[in-house]
Amino acid sequence: MWQSLWIAGTAALVAVAPVRADTSAITDVRVETSADGLQLILEFDGEETPQIFSSASGNTLIVDILNTRLRLADGDRFSADNPNEAIAEIAVSPLDENNVRLIVTSQSGQPAIEWNEAGGALIFQVTTAEVETPTLPNLSADPSAEGDARPDDIIEILVTATRNLERLTDVPRSTSVIEQEQIEEQMRVTRDLGTILSQEVPGLSPPTQSASNFGQTLRGRNISVLIDGIPQSTNRNVARDLRTIDPGAIERVEVLRGPTAIYGDGATGGIINIITKQGRGEGITAQSWLDFNAFPSDFGDSLSPTIQQSVSGRLGKIDIALNASYTGVNGLFDGDGDRIPPDPNAQGGLADTTTLNVSSKLGYNFTEDQRLQLLFNYFHDDQDTNYTTDPIVNELPGRQKARALSGLELDNSQQTDNLLVSLDYTNDNLLGSRLHAQTYYRDYFTRFFPFDAREFPSLGNTIFQSQVESEKYGGRLQLNTPLFGEENGNLLWGVDYVRESTNQPVDIFDPEVFENSDGLVYRRIGDRTWSPLQRQDNLGLFAQLKVNLGEKVVLRGGVRHERINIDVDDYTTIAGDAIEGGELDYDATLFNIGGVVYPTDEISVFANFSQGFSIADVGRVLRGASAGFSVEELDPEAQTVDNYEIGIRANYEKVRASLSGFYNTSDLGSTFTQDFQVVRAPERVYGVEFALDVTPSEKWAFGGTFTWTDGAVDLEDNGDYDDPLNGFRISPIKVTAYVENETLPGWNNRLQALYSGSRDPEGQGFGLGEVDSYITLDLISSLQVGPGRFVLGVENLLDTQYFPVVSQLQGQDTAYAAARGRTLRLGYSLSW
């Protein structure tokens, strides 16, 4: 029976599966004309029909034929130039040792294919469409419902959850994959990655609308953010890990929800692994992007441009992907039309900010088995503003909205720099095992907005501006060794090492000049140490075992042992207190075990137990140490989290859904009090997550997610969890929903909503204030025009005046900033 593969998109994504014993071989390729166009016939000698995965962009259609090798009598490639008037080229070549890629390039319009299998041959019917059919991102892959169907003609590969190439439904964990198509669609309303992911990922807190992801937890605990497997955290946690790369450089994002130690410490809530773009397809292609963003309430002061240029492709053994983007954000305005201060919710702002990102990935394939890959990513944020937050709101009665005040004079602006370089080597057949070796270097710098601490003795009664400087290098070596036969299981084992040096100095400002200028002029008079220089070494040893019990049961289990050493010299605090340095040693051994059962091809049920761990933010504790304190007085015990989870996934042709429940506990906490002291009491967090995507027809799609999380702390350590965890950890109920329609050929529209509920925990203290609910609505529209696409995005379509959760939890009104009002974004993208 003919199978339709009409799939449109902006890029292709194929994650390569491990070598299989049942690999087929394509022995002959030929092109024949037919009444409906062209037929491409691929003869193969395997017993099973190869798996097919396809996507299209512009005039190019890419079809990847999995678990297949190319064995032609006259060479290792096939090409046909101008086989008819509509088709410019057909090319068939090896993608790697175990997969074959077919590329069809048309003269105009988008190519499309239908295929069937008959008499030991794959027969592709090739046609062209007059206009490009837009992608409905949720039709083909469900990023939030963990979408992968069990049938062989739908395949989704994940690397984050197991550090290995895996079928998504074989992983006994809640996972989400956000494809490039979803990311680019969300970029039509915002380029803030935290906002994009919150719309797509259940379990992730609502967006903060600031430069920081502080308060944006995953399942009520901390997130570990990676770029191509490289940790973006610093041991003096500044919670800006999601703002280290532009979304335009991202191929996909893989999110593992729930505690894990698979990559080391810090992922007590889960992992967000950002996979950068890789050059794919023969030849070089380019994409240009230009858009303008503005607030109708103040068009002139808010008009902001974005320019993005990407080049990618493959030439012989070399593949390259280069992406450069520039965004200039001017003023931001809330639903009442008022300017939002440059430092909303005291966590860093996005107003009056220029952002530059240059990212490249260069690969060289020595042989079919061996590959060397170089990654370079540089991200720069600079907030050059003459606005600050008006301190008068703290003196007015009642709850007051934060106000912007002009006239700021500040020498060193808020800024972020992130330089990342890595070198990867893979060998798919090293004595029967697959080797992956990686070494990397990261140089990170961020400077915060000034802070008036004249009423805080522990902060020296000063006015200061802090910055975090971090340098990190590390590497990992892992091998994937088949066991019990290649189809029955494997053992992944290896070692990780990271060395990081971090400190947090501050500039001190003249209080008299500050006072006489009504808080507008900052004149530097000196510098001090806030967090001392910390040298941290992490060494981790790990092993992960996978066993397939037939086709219906997959079992997994693993162990990781981590050792951490922190070395701190003697230092003097910002308040002038002398502190004795010393060393801290942490170690932890973590386990995980889980399994997946397939009652049917469409249903998978999973359960798992996993452990994650993290050490306290030592630098944050040490910056408030009192006189006579010694570093070695700190508690050297790491926080270990035990997590239990069950879930079910359904993947039918038109319906995809997932439901999971989790419960995790830790004997030690990592929550902070208002005066930066660590609360080391037992904690428990639990919740339910649901996702649904329905495609009733080719032109319609709808769905959404539901997230409920709660948690408590046992401050008395008596077994009674009477005190709720604060709102920076536990977010209110979050619901997202969307409906999408291909209104006319080439014109696609999406309406999406995000609801954040209310929460009023009992008790008083840091982050325990009442939170009010809000709902936002966005419109995304795109229209194919010629060789490119016009896009229109409207964020906060109804111009709702609301306050993000993190703003509502702030104790001072200077940090009680409203969210963005109605925002328009109009752009055009062109592939060439």
From TrEMBL:
- Give all residue intervals belonging to the TonB-dependent receptor-like beta-barrel domain: 364-797
- Keyword Membrane applies: yes
Recorded GO MF terms: siderophore uptake transmembrane transporter activity
Q: Which residues form the TonB-dependent receptor plug domain?
A: 168-271
One family from Pfam that matches here is TonB_dep_Rec_b-barrel
Q: Which GO terms describe its biological process?
A: siderophore transmembrane transport
Q: PROSITE patterns from the xrefs?
A: TONB_DEPENDENT_REC_3
Per its UniProt record, what InterPro entries does this chain match?
Answer: AMIN_dom, Beta-barrel_TonB, Beta-barrel_TonB_sf, Plug_dom, Plug_dom_sf, TonB-dep_rcpt-like
- Name its cellular compartments: Cell outer membrane
- Classification via SUPFAM superfamilies: Porins
How does the record say this protein sits in the membrane? Multi-pass membrane protein
Report which superkingdom the organism of origin falls in. Answer: Bacteria
Q: Name one GO cellular component term.
A: cell outer membrane
Keywords in alphabetical order, please: Cell outer membrane, Membrane, Receptor, TonB box, Transmembrane, Transmembrane beta strand, Transport
> Into which family does the record put it?
Belongs to the TonB-dependent receptor family.
- List the protein's name: TonB-dependent receptor
Q: What organism does this protein naturally occur in?
A: Oxynema aestuarii AP17
